[in-house]
Structures are given as C-alpha cells and as structure tokens.
Amino acid sequence: MARKDSGDALDKPKKQKKRRWYHNFADAFKLVAKHEKWVPWAIFGSITLAIAAGITIGWFFDQAVYGGIMGLLVGSLAGMVILSVRTRKVSYRQIEDQPGASFAVLDQIKRGWSIEQEPVQVNPRTQDLVFRMVGRPGVVLVSEGPSNRVARLLSDERKRIQRVIPQTVPVIFLESGNGEGQVPLLKLEGRVKGLKKALTNEEVAAVSKRLRSLGTMSLPIPKGIDPMRARPDRKGMRGR
C-alpha cells in the first residue's frame, strides 16, 4: 500500500509556482540590463543620491535616520520609474517588426476603449494589418505597414464600418510605423490617448455593439511585450 501511495505521489503533476511582483521586477531588470547596461547604474545611483540627500537634510533637523529612510523610499520610487520607462522602450524595440506589434501597444489601453482582439483587415501576402478600436474620440483604425500599401486597407475598412454606424461618428486613421507621417510604436499609446473626445459613453457602447457584427480576421499577436506591463503604479508589479 505504501508503495502504491508513493507511485501516486510521483504521478501527481507538480503545482506551478505563482508569479509574484518580484518575479516581474527581476525579469524586467534582466531584460533592461541586457540591452541598456547604463540603466542599473542609473537606478542604483538614484537610490544612493536620494539616501545621501535624505540623511543630509535630516541631519540639520536631528533626524538623520528618518531622513535616510525617506531618501531610500524616494530613491526606490525614482528607480522604479526609470526601470518602467526603459523596460517599455526595450520591449517595444524587440517587437517593432513583428505582425501585431501595434495591438500589443494598444492592449495597454483598457479604460474607455473597446479594442478588437484580431485585425479587421489583413493583407496575407505582405502581412499589413488594420486594427480597430472604439472610444470617445470615435472609431480609430490603426494600421501596420508602409503608407502606400495600407491606404487601401484603411479605406476598405472605413467603407465597411460606415454601412453600420451613423455618419456623424468620426473615423480616425493612425498609421503605425517609422515612415513619414506615421506614428512610431513608442508614441502610439500617447497619440491615441491624446485624441479629442466626440462621443458619449452611451454612443461608444452602441457603436461598439454594431461593429461587433462585422467580425475580424485571425492573425497571431506577439505576447508578453513588457515583463512589468509598464505600470508600476497599478497592475504592473502584480503577479500574473
């Protein structure tokens, strides 16, 4: 009986360890340190300088220990900001030429937007893509590929969606890329967030519901672009 129990124990699959925030932190640090060797020095330097400044200021008020602790906290926060920014830039550079890279960036924008998980227009030969998102600025079509090739895809998608939405709903084109007039991957999220609002929340929900009936096209999307999800202030340091 003991032998049987032992065998059952061996056959039982091992539980995977839950990822904690410090695992994401370690992954992000290794990624950035590999590609930008100055970043670890900048992080440790900011912490050291903050501690020194805290101790110096605290010494004048006979609170050197308290000043050092506050300096450590401030320096750690500064280091986290540096790591977050550089992690995002390194991660974006790694996926820049992959199909679906723009969606990986757009997927960071959650609040107030309805984003299709698959491209709505695809050129199978060149792998040029168009992604669609709906928010208060209207319907935003984000393309990947050279301007001379994606213009047709964007135009076709606009004609397709205007059959099911009111003509008053703005349809905005954003070309993701490094060509003239295009938006670099690193600036894409900021450009989307900077668009002027034109719809109410109720109108956004209604437009999104109508567009879902049009469907999408399937194409693999790059995963895990950012070990910290570049959001240390909210969910970026939470285990997955």
Give the secondary structure arrangement, pairings included.
Elements: H1 2-11, H2 21-35, H3 38-60, H4 64-95, H5 101-106, E1 114-115, E2 121-123, E3 128-135, E4 138-144, H6 147-161, E5 171-176, H7 185-193, H8 201-212
Parallel strand pairs: 4-5
Antiparallel strand pairs: 1-3, 2-3, 3-4
Helix pairs in contact: 2-4, 3-4
Structure explained in plain terms:
- The protein has 240 residues and is α+β, with helices and mostly antiparallel strands.
- The protein folds into two domains: 17-95, no CATH class; 101-212, no CATH class.
- 51% of the residues lie in helices and 11% in strands.
- The protein has helices spanning 2-11, 21-35, 38-60, 64-95, 101-106, 147-161, 185-193, 201-212, and strands at 114-115, 121-123, 128-135, 138-144, 171-176.
- Strands 1, 2, 3, 4 and 5 form a five-stranded mixed beta sheet that branches.
- β4 (138-144), α6 (147-161) and β5 (171-176) form a beta-alpha-beta unit.
- α3 runs antiparallel to α4 (64-95).
- The longest helix has 32 residues, at 64-95.
- The chain is elongated, with a radius of gyration of 24 Å.
- The model is unreliable at 223-240 (pLDDT under 50).
Spans where pLDDT lies below 50 across 5 or more residues: 223-240
Main sheet makeup: 5 strands, mixed
| Mean of all residue-level pLDDT scores | 79
Strand content: 5-15%
Q: Give the end-to-end Cα distance, rounded to a whole number of Å.
A: 39 Å
Helix content: 40-55%
Treating each run of at least 4 consecutive H or I residues as one helix, how many helices?
A: 8
- Tally of distinct domains: 2
> What Rg is obtained from the alpha carbons, in whole angstroms?
24 Å
Secondary structure class reads alpha+beta
Cα shape: elongated
